[in-house]
Amino acid sequence: MTELQKRILSSLVLVPIVLFCLWSGGWVYRALVLLVMIGLVWEGESLLGQRMKTLRGVLLMLWPLCAGLIAIKGQWLAVASLVGASLLFGLPTCGPVLVSIFGGIALLWLRSRPEGLYETLFVIFAVIASDSCAYATGRLIGGPKLAPAISPGKTISGSIGGIIGAVVMGGVIAHAAGAGWSVSACLMGGILAIAAQCGDLMESAFKRRLGVKDSGKLIPGHGGLLDRLDALLLAAPIAALCALCSGQAAFWTLF
């Protein structure tokens, strides 16, 4: 089986599961996010040389799990305390823990809001549109590299194409949510695309520094969780921050 065939088969299995959990909400969705948070820590800390089948490894995985469970109960001060406590492990090794906590809690909180289903879909599909359109535009047009020292395959044209794709997707999701063709939603799609591309570049720099191609082998044809979720892990907290500023209204109405 080729890598492309593995990628397609993995997507056919995983995408319906994720969409079902997202649509169902409640503990089905929360369980998925919590499992992913634990998996991200396992993967990231393993790349940093941490043996996860040790007491320290178990504690590192318990940190995001506890943070997620506490966040579900709305105890944000306790979550902040856990984040602060994770810093005691040292900045070089607590990075995956913090990334997991911030990204996971953002996704949990967004789905719990009045417009949570559409807001979470907005973030996910804006990231997918950015990634897909960036890849297609880069292959079609090419041109100067975006960050050759970090990710030689990415081009400036691809980055622009990804932003345009997310802008269009933002308008589509807002329209599907009954908000009409919103300029604000299109703008928010572009902002999330920029955040997604920054998250992708950060993960590429992380892997390049460690001298690895993929963060893991969990998803056949796709690599690891960090490989697939790097863009979402930065875009989701940005969307959550915008949602916090927008109050009860959907976050894409902020502008």
Write the layout of secondary structure elements.
Blueprint: H1 3-24, H2 26-47, H3 55-72, H4 76-86, H5 91-112, H6 116-141, E1 145-147, E2 151-155, H7 156-176, H8 183-210, H9 225-246
Antiparallel strand pairs: 1-2
Helix pairs in contact: 1-2, 2-3, 2-5, 3-4, 3-5, 5-6, 5-9, 6-7, 6-8, 6-9, 7-8, 8-9
How would you describe what is shown here?
By secondary structure, the chain is mainly alpha-helical. Strand 1 and strand 2 form a beta hairpin. Helix 2 packs antiparallel against helix 5, helix 3 packs parallel to helix 5 and helix 6 packs across helix 8. The radius of gyration is 18 Å and the shape is globular. The protein starts with a helix and ends in a 9-residue tail after the last helix.
Give the fraction of residues assigned to helices.
over 70%
**Principal-axes shape call:** globular
Order of SSEs, N→C?
HHHHHHEEHHH
Mean pLDDT: 88
Total helices: the number is: 9
Largest sheet: 2 strands, antiparallel
Overall SS class: mainly alpha
Assembly type: single chain
Beta-strand portion reads under 5%
How far the N terminus sits from the C terminus, by CA atoms, comes to 47 Å
Low-confidence stretches: none
Number of strands: 2
Q: What does the radius of gyration come to?
A: 18 Å
Strand order of the largest sheet: 1-2
